[in-house]
Structure formats: C-alpha cells, structure tokens
Amino acid sequence: MENRKLELIADFYEFTMANGYFVKNMDYIAYFDVFFRKIPDDGGYAIFAGLEQVIEFVKNLSFDDDDIEYLRSKNLFNEDFLNYLRNFKFTGDIYAVPEGTIVFPYEPLITVKAPIVEAQLLETALLLIINHQSLIATKTRRIVTAAKDIPVMEFGARRAHGADAAVYGARAAIIGGAVGTSCTVSAKNFDVPASGTMAHSWIQSFDSEYEAFKTYAEIYPNNCLFLIDTYDTLNSGLPNAIRVFDEVLKPQGIKPLGVRLDSGDLAYLSKEVRKRLDEAGYPEVGICATNSLDENLIQSLFEQDAKITSFGVGENLITAKSDPVFGGVYKLVAIEKERGTIIPKIKISENVAKITNPSFKKTVRFYSKETNKALADLIVLHDEVVQEGEYTIFDPANPWKKKVLTNYYTKELQVKIFDNGNLVYNSPALKDIAKYSKEDLDTFWDEVKRLYNPHNYFVDLSQNLYDLKQELLNNK
C-alpha cells in the first residue's frame, strides 16, 4: 500500500457524505466499528489480518491536485471542502485487535474515533483490506488444520483476482499458517520463504524428461524437487527422477528434496511413489502434492493413507473459493457533539443479524487460570470493568444457553494504533504475526477448531450494553 495513490479508493458516497458534514459544520467526533457477521465456511472462528496495510493507508492518506480537480469536475462539492481535502491529515484515534488474533462475529475488530469527515473517508479502504486478508488467513488456517503437521505452501498467485490479491493474499496465507509462497514479490517484501522449482514447460522444452531433470540438478543441486507427472508419473517421471538422484546428486553427497505430483490419483500415486523411492534408497525424499487442493481434498487424502509430505495449495486458497466473502462492515456506533459526551447510535433492521451493537465498546476475553484456554468473549462498553470471581455468560442468539465462568483472568483484545493522528503501534514482522496467530489459536479447545460442526464459542454482551441496546430499540 505504501507510496501508492489509493486515496480515491472510496465509494463515491463517502465523498458526498463528507462534503455534507463539512458544509453543515458537523465537526463532531464519530465512532465507527469494523466487524463481521458470519464465519466463512461455517467455521468455528476467524483470523484477523490486514492491520499493517490499514496503518500504511491511514498514515499516507492525502489528496493531490489531480484528485481535487477530479472531484471539482463533478460539480457536487463545496470549494472549501476541496481545500480541506488538499490539506487532509488523519487526526483521530484507531483501536484494533493485533493481527493474527482469533476473532468472532460482531466483535469490534477496528474502532475508529475521529472527526466524522475523516472517519467516513476511511470506510472502503479499511473494509477491502480487512475483508480480503482476514478471509484468506482464515481459509488458509482451515487448510493447514486439515493438513495436520504437514507443511502447506501458498501457490495461488496466477489464479488470484489481480496483483494485490496475489501479494497480500500470500501475506495473509502466512498469517494463516502457510510456510512459504510462490509469489516472489511477497517473499521479498515480507521476508518469508519463496517456494517453487519447475513447471511442466521446463520439462517439455528439453528433448527428454531425463535431460530436463539432469540439467536442473546440475544447475540447482541443492534445490531438486522434480515435477514427475508431465508424461507418465510411474513409468517415466519417477524412474527419471531416481536416475538423476543416483547419477548427479548422490556422487556429490547431496540429498534430493523430493518429487511433486500435480495430477492423477494423488492418494494412489503417492503410495506407489513412496514405495519405489524407499526401494531405491531414498526414504527421506519428500512427496509434494498440488492440483486444486483444499481442506476437503486434503482430509480425503489422509483418509486414504496418502504418503504426502507437503502440499502446495493454489486457487482454492488464494480465492477462498468455497466461501469468497468475509462480509466485514463499517458502522457508525456513536457520536460526540460535545467532547466527552458519547451519544450511542444504532442501526435497526428487520433482519436481526443486521442490528448493530451501539456505542464505544471493547471486547474482553476470559481465560481459565487452570488451563489458559479461552472460555468466552464479552463485548462491553469502553469504560466497563469486568468483575472478578464469577461471571454468567449467555449465548445472545439462544439466551437460554448459559455458562458460569469461575477461576478466570481476562484480556482486552484491542490495542491503540493511532492517538490523535499519531501512530503509536509498532507492527510486528510477518513471521512473528504468524507465530502469534498459531499460539492464539492454541488457547482454544479442539471443539472450536473443528472444520465441521464446530462448538459454538460464546460471545456475549455485557448487561449494560444489552440494556443500552434494548433502550435504543424500544425508543425508535
């Protein structure tokens, strides 16, 4: 995002509304929440990602003469408003959960507290960043979970929905647990492993498959992972790979990395390849599987006792093909007409799922002191203090379901990112975000992490927030 002209990545109504606020001197403070309503793929949790790019966008947001002239050409905008944009700088506060955090529907992922003109202009950019990366991170973790302890590499750049989707999709995949990416610019920019050796075109460009493998081994002896399905996996590809291992690598004392299967019956082929590699004296050589994989196919391969040691996952990961919309929204939840006096706001809908939780809030997570496992989350008003000792928490969708929490400690999920327009947060390295995300997921019970029919993790509203919401609903 940095140093790119993205200031006009905004729905046009953001500018018409901002102009209206400006003309009417509506200079009060507004509070907006970014949250989502449904976990993709009916999973048990989601992973928050994209904060670093949000920071870059907000930090660099400004409007140049070309932007101003374009808006002026629409004959809609007040000249004083255009002059305001010419000198624009974000001056508000932003709170967010750290990247990699395990999150649930309706929890504020990002809270923007700023003059309403400023806050309104952030809407589209924040949503497109968070929706995309959180979606891909969550999908990747599903795939990594299905793969158990076997490494998953992100191989989807060529199938992504554009360059940014490839670059930042790879970044999100690392947060979700991928160990490397085929996208070279992502590997460079985010300091993560670059994965890949050869395509079928390399093999086809030589007079024989053997010559293609031999040439590659001579050039890259320490990076030999041969693609063996170009012609005939078992009768041509594998024998030629073993021959090159014997003739080129073994005399140098170099161990081959492996072979890759990109078509055919992956379960059967992997078992047969494993058997023949072992018989040839290469029990340590890995078998990488690719070819339109997702969590369902990977799970099926395990059920068939496939002998695969790594996965390269492409289009189904980078596009989150099975459920390609994260559904995050940006909603006004409060205003301050007088500094310090928060006036809660609510959006009402006949669709109950679209009724918002009002006011300036925070999310508190309960952990067991005995196991350090997460017990439940509670969305509370920003100045609420959660009582110690015992707390009864309800499932808001089914309030007859409840559980009594005892012997717990709590943690607030959000941290401050911008304070009066100044960045006060240091973004961790991507490797550290990925490590944190895995550790955060480890605090949840296996029942929550199931791929199918996961346990419903409780996210409740505090009594004060619930009462406020009911009051606003009853008064409309």
Explain how this protein is built.
The chain is α/β, with parallel strands linked by helices and 476 residues long. The chain is 37% helix and 21% strand. It has 17 helices and 21 strands. It has a 7-stranded antiparallel sheet. α10 runs parallel beside α11 (233-249). The longest helix has 24 residues, at 123-146.
Report a brief summary of the structure.
By secondary structure, this protein is an alpha/beta fold. The chain contains 17 helices and 21 strands.
Share of residues in strands:
15-25%
| Low-pLDDT runs | none
Helix/strand/pairing class, anyone? alpha/beta
Number of helices, where a helix is a run of at least 4 consecutive DSSP H or I residues = 17
Query: Helicity, in percent?
Result: 25-40%
Mean pLDDT: 96
Strand order of the largest sheet: 13-12-1-5-3-19-20
Distance between the termini: 41 Å
| Radius of gyration, whole Å | 26 Å
Taking the sheet with the most strands, its summary is:
7 strands, antiparallel
Shape: globular
Tally of DSSP β-strands: 21
